[in-house]
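TASK: fixed-backbone design
INPUT:
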């Protein structure tokens, strides 16, 4: 996930540079090439964002399941009047 985040930052910087270059260029051929490159990098960025979103959903689900497990253990412990056992 960290590598994907770094890739998003790199792509974001590249998109900013492409945008600036597009504004500064006057050649229609260069503008067309820059636009094509911009679209490719945007597609990569969209894929990376999708990957990060899926990773976040998995992490959230895992945290939620752990929370429910802890609540179950605490409820059982308080019902029994016993102490929590260490795992």
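OUTPUT:
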């Amino acid at each position: 996930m960290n590598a994907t985040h770094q890739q998003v930052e790199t792509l974001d910087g590249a998109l900013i540079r492409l945008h600036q270059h597009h504004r500064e260029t006057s050649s229609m051929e260069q503008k067309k090439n820059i636009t094509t490159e911009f679209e490719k990098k945007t597609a990569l960025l969209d894929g990376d964002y999708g990957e990060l979103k899926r990773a976040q959903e998995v992490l959230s689900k895992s945290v939620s399941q752990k929370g429910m497990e802890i609540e179950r253990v605490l409820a059982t412990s308080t019902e029994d009047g016993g102490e929590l056992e260490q795992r």
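COMMENT: The radius of gyration is 24 Å.
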